[in-house]
Amino acid sequence: MRSLVLMNDNGQKKIGAVLVEGGGIAGVQASLDLANAGFKVYLVEREAAIGGMMSHLDKTFPTGDCATCIVSPKLVECARNLNIEILTMSELTGLQGEPGHFKATVKRYPRYVDETKCNGCSACTNACPVQIPDHFDRELGRRKAIAKHYAQATPNLFGILKNGHAPCKMTCPANVNVQGYVQLIKKKEYVKAMNLIRERNPLSAICGRICTHPCESQCTRGKADEPLAIRLLKRFASDKEVEMLEAGKLALPAEKMPAPGAKKVAVIGAGPAGLTVASDLADRGFAVTVYESQPAAGGMLRYGIPEYRLPKKVLDHEVELIRRKGVRFVYDCRVGKNVSRSSRPRSEGETPSTPVTLDQLRKDNDAVFIGTGVTQGRLLGVEGENKPGVLQGVDFLRDVARASRPCRMGFQPMNHRQDADATEKRGQDARGTQGQDALATNKEETRLPLPEVKARVVVIGGGNVAVDVARTALRLGAKTVEMVSLEQRHEMPAYPEEVEATLHEGIKITNGWGPLRILGNGSVSGIELKKCTRVFDENERFSPVYDEQQRISIEADQIITAIGQTSDEGFVKHIGAATQGRYFQADPVTLQTSLAGVFAGGDAVSGPKSVIEAVAAGKRAAESIERYLHGKDMVAQRFESEVKPVPEELLPETEDVEEEARAQAGELPVAQRVGSFQEVEMGFTEEQALTEAERCLNCALCSECKECVEACKQNAIDHLMGERTVELEVGSVILTTGFEEFDARRKGEFGWGRYPNVVTSVQFERTLSAAGPFEGHVVRLSDRREAKRIAWIQCVGSRDSQCGNEYCSSVCCMASTKQAMVAQDHTPGLEATIFYLDIRAHGKDFDQYYERAKTQNGVRYIKSIPSRIVQMPGTMNPRARFVDETGKLGEEEFDLIVLAVGLEPSGSAKELASRLGIELNEYGFCATQRALPLSTSRPGVFVGGAFQEPKDIPETVMQASGAASMAMELLASARNTRTVKKKYPDEHDVTDEEPRIGVFICHCGRNIGSVVDVERVVRNIESEPGVAFATHTMFTCADTSLSNIRAQIVEHRLNRVVVASCTPRTHEPLFRETMREAGLNPYLFEMANIRDQCSWVHSASPDRATQKATELARMAIARAQRLAPLEGGTLAVDQKGLIIGGGLAGMTAALALANQGFNVHLIERTDRLGGHLHDIHHTLEDTDVAGLAAHLIRQVQEHKNIDVYLGTDVAEIKGHIGEFHATLSGNGQKSQVSAGAVIVATGAQKAQTTKFLGGASAHVTTQVDLEKQLQEGCLAPSIRSVVMIQCAGSRDEERPYCSRICCSMAIKNALALKAKSPETEVFVLYRDIRTYGFRELHYKKAREAGVVFLRYTPEQPPVVSSTGILPVRGSPNASFRVWGPSSMGVPPMNIEDIHGRDGRATHGRDAHATETPCGVTTNAGGLKVSVHSPDFPEPLAIETDLVVLSTGVEADRPNNQRVSDMLKVPLNADGFYVEAHMKLRPVDFATEGIFLCGLAHAPKFLDETIAQARAAAARAATVLSKTHLDVSPQVSYVNQSKCISCMTCVHVCPYNAPFCNTDGKGQIEAAKCMGCGICASECPARAIQLNHFETDQFRVMIRTLFAEGSGAAQEEIPARMA
Amino acid sequence: MHQSTLAVAQSLGMQLVEPKGWTCCGATAGHQTDRLLAVALPAATLVKVQDLGLDLVVNCAACYNRMKVANHEIAGNRQVRAQVAEAIGRDYDGSVKVRHLLEVLLDGVGTETIQKALRRSLAGLKVASYYGCLLVRPREVTGFDDPENPSSLDRLVAAMGGTPLEWPHKVECGGGGGLSMSRTDVVVNLTDTIVGMAKLAGADCIAVSCPMCQINLDMRQLDIARSKGNRYDLPVLYITQLLGLCLGVPAQKLGLNKLMISPARVVQAVVAA
Hints:
Chain A is an alpha/beta fold. In chain A, helix 31 packs across helix 35 (1102-1122). In chain B, helix 1 packs across helix 12.
């Protein structure tokens, strides 16, 4: 056992700060306790907001509270506490140092939203086009890529989800943000879409036509059905842009000129690479001149791709946009070392080129880019190739392009023409000064004649150029066109759709033949072909093999070859840069050539590639040129290296995607194609485009379309935000990482993930939640139909060795019960069925809740776990197959099945543990010991909540406070060293001011806003007297809204504030705090509850709800006018603790407080410390309890801060928080002690029963006694058969609760019996085995050890009778009778399986009881236990030696009643104390300063008692750590002149506040007064007034309600009020 | 089934070699009788395959399962291996690769090759793929597809142009393994559930990958009609029978005439496509 003694201080000063990892309810509670006790807290949370699993829940059990409503105030309190720093989207990654002085490393993931700027306004979410599955709703609903974690998220901040970059963007050579522009198209933001594309690709409209769209091949949608039609979407956007330009709805960008003195760059070649470089560098402020040998820009785009595929208009438009950036174009200008590089005869009228040398360009410019592409057609190298009538495809296409239309005209929409002309002139002027004649930019190019096309044309080649040539030839009048391709059809390099179109247009394709020679005398008459037997070798390299024996000839008048292109070798060789073959050699990353300042890219470097690859090269070169010219690193952090793919496993699921066909664009009818160059492919209609864009699965989550950036008025969004690491100094760490639900996919037989109507329990919580995806309607996913028959299956991923989780998840039984009852509330008549193994309702008041579900709500419980769910065809109803209680195989259909998935530690917690060196148990939970439930294996690191063991909220909260206590004990010496105290501004004196009221009406999201017309309420009340300002807010309690209130107080000089929203119970403190922060007295605040009282109760009549809201607001405003500032006092805290009860709870709490340096009075009624610890010898896990008890007692007795009072009782307690005075009586003496806080740890007692012969037979004992006998070794060895009866006197009318510990205790003793003698038969008769958490493992162990568990029902309890006859083993009538063989459906279980096989024949035993050495009668007793187990068809009778009753725990009613009266704290029906709130305040009493722990609260285990005791100490420390407390001024006071000394107030006050003073008049002790107002209402003389709730304040409210003009009828105000 | 398997193998260019002297795997009778026998019987055949240096392809789910289990047990347990060695007279290490015909068709031949070889199409015929329980279970042993929702047969059906049905009883036991002869009453109930569900899901036929399943689902439809009055008339075809039809193998070479429920509608649908 690890030592309970905390680390010694090694002399170094400890750090008074604690890191809490995990912001669920546990982390929040621990943080609040620590911060309120004087420690700085870093609350680290992986998600974007704190709240953990509780924020996902709809309601809590058994209280029925709205989970969000009860947790939210705590979250807000956390956010507002100055000493709690919340680090969301962060995780602890490392921890160095030792207890007291750790250095914690925290990784902070990017939120992409600046936390200091975001005001939670939601403009970004509204602008975001990306809809992705919402993990908060467990993928039932959808969210935007930028969103709040959940509606009430704390901190109230937005955040962006990113996964990397989508496959489309990754695949695009230029990394165009495809997902981004598709989303913008979805939003109909076509111009923005184009601009986004142009960030990476200035030729976007062109690519919309002719891109090879590698992106589509990788589109994730393709896995579901077909890839998105990305190219056509891009084309659609570009068409829209042109359409808008033409309609005058969009203006071309203004022409720009490079700044004077800008560095100069020359670009050789105006093809795609050159255009991209020019565009990009112009954007970056360089002066770029493009030299182009042809008369117009575009390169192959203009001179290679036919008009019917890429209309020149589109190209011109894009060139014009580039020109407008200030790029100069010099056409008809050849660059070379004074070499005439073209051997082609010049056509007539063609402008002679002006030679410009590279040397000259390098001299005149700071850098040069060569993008001259591949312009030459490859030669066939066959006989007759230079016959007239043999053309090169590229030349042919170029000539067609040059002839078809004037080339130079940029796209100039009508209404921009003038403007364009004007700028053209200005441009000329500018250029004129540079004295370049060759520019001649506005000279009309002369049209060239179209090349002649003969009747029979044969095109050689199977690529895209060949296809273009063939289709062009056809359009120019060829009678027949035939293509000859080396490759087979499927091998052809041309795109399949192009080949398809070619065939469609009537062009013949001859596959598998290569040219041998060209026939004809003089001119061409045909071509002879040889058979090509193979084109590609094994390595798929081009390596054709021919069979020259097989030959055919084709007649032809003209042969056009298009077997590939190459660069102009002469040019390349002579330019002077290093080359590689016929191409330039350039660095693959920077595209630098061997010449300084000369870069090259595109086809001139790579050989023939696609347009988008040339664009990518251009982008790369432009980046390099800028870096080069600015002297920056050429390689580091280039764009391309920063683009990271979405990890495979994070790509969207495609299995569930509903199939939807890809949109198809129309085509020009074939008849219209021939003889025309009209564009063949038609674009999408808008409808098609929008539908198609919707198909995008948003692989990267955020599309980086930047719409949010534009929408955010706070400039809070930063898409480039990266990860950060921070180091924090802390003294201790608390791990509260909680749990993750079991992945139901691992139980494939239930079909979760395949069947839409099978959901997990977390999904169902979201379904029930009003803030969830279905707004609280109980519908199912497949058809959104209301579910009327719902089944729950328990233990999915729990108590299941098959999936590795053998433990019980503890909460699911109750959670399902709650869900069933809540669902019935939502849908009247809903039939709920719960399939279970054991109902584990072991918590306080749980059993009563379960009984209510069963009996009142008619929830059907079936003890069976279905083996399989199938989904019925058609209805999609899930059908469960199960064996019912009679053993019959049954099947039942439901509308919806909920899988109660188990709890597992989160994956990240496991990683964290390994980084921190924290031991885990075999299931990945934090390894702890029962005696040290809050300590991890690493000193100074504590644990609490579900990471320690699956548990419910109250236990989680207890452990959290307990872990906080551990940290407080460790760091006691450093208390208040790292904290800051809140300073409020001086209070503004309003006494002489007219009321100026600010009114804030809350929408509460949809909670109020969906029913009440909030804006109308504002209009209705804004002219009320005194109202100086009125507005409405989405969530008034949000941090940003509170700052707004403060701002309005200043701006409008408000001196009263009214908020109409939810309940003051949860939110008034928050608003009062805001008042103080703004310099106003907090009592100048008034609240109207228009949620509970309007939107909730009148949801069916919104109009009247609105009217009522107006009236309530009016009343609040009227009252606000009468409000007066109140001043509270402070009271000194007596920094000592008083603990009642010296058992485990009391001792632990005493030590926890004493270790923190507080003096403690520990009062124990009996003569020794330890309580029930003396009855327990070891735990189920074999913890040495006796050792623990001895250790604790010694520590307590020796602790200098603890005064132990044995044999002493508390006779009286007076006082209040901070100052209690107790009179102790013991040993015949009375003494007085004082304390600032009281902890009630009075324990409970062993229950007794007379049932089952309890107390009536010497052979009927209890578990406690059995344990004792086992421990002391005095159980008679002759005992060979033991029957344990569970719930003996529990879970019945007399004691309706479950004692929680008895099942484990029985198993502990059963195992001990078996360990002692394996032959001893042990039967456990039970109703439900409740071994929750890891205790379940021992249940399994017991079954494996041969302990027989037999279930009984309360309707047929076991009957114990004394036979007086000793069982004689082995004789025919021995033991119990077994069911007949005719019973069907029961496993053929042999009697011997139950009764043992050895047939021990004769134990000649004494029928008379004998005295054992311990003096306990335990000999064989001849008892018969009859039980009717529902699992067996016939009753069983067991003859046994010993019956052990599990009698459970009972409250010590008389003592509890006495303490309860004394402290004025309540008891429940079972006699246990009632805590302030069952879920979230499990150790507090409603009365401040008094705390509760141990069995006095409810039955619990040792580890739970320890945690709760420490929790009580932590809670007490929040009081004791302060020297003074603020006293509320909201107390009653007695008008002494009116008091008639009747003492009514003294009698009615539940807090003992009024007393009779020396004048004989009533007076009220302000520190005790809780402001409940009972005295004020009861005082017959009306002498008592309650501050802040004074009569005239109510009177004016009532008057307002009934005043003229208000909706309510004018009525007589009741006399008493008047 | 046998006929059609050979025919399909032939048209897909698969060469099947029959191991000389193969023996029965023992089937359910074997493994219910004696654990050693249940392992030794398949092992006797497996060593013969090992001698051939080939993988073993099995077209019956039960034989497949037995072969796999035998390999699993022999390879994983030295004692079993020794016992088997004694029983069959030589040592066998459990290393022969056992593959179901379906695996060979999908992973070995591949849907692309199959599709290229197809002469006809199932033309959208709605096919309920039935895997039975032995092909996919236990997962640790067979490692064949998803044990709850397998999809290999469906992929093959889709490749043939059929519409694979989403239906819940893909791996539901039909009782063919052990009760076919001994407890026909149970089998009638089980098969009624399966065929009824396929019918409910709108199936035009059931495709199976196990001859026992085929016999069971096909033949028992007559008993179901007789004893329960449910008349389904749902043809049950072994996967190579369907594939054979699509590959253009003449119907008479596919053993279609041996089916109890006439597959005429299926044949017509395929031919008509």
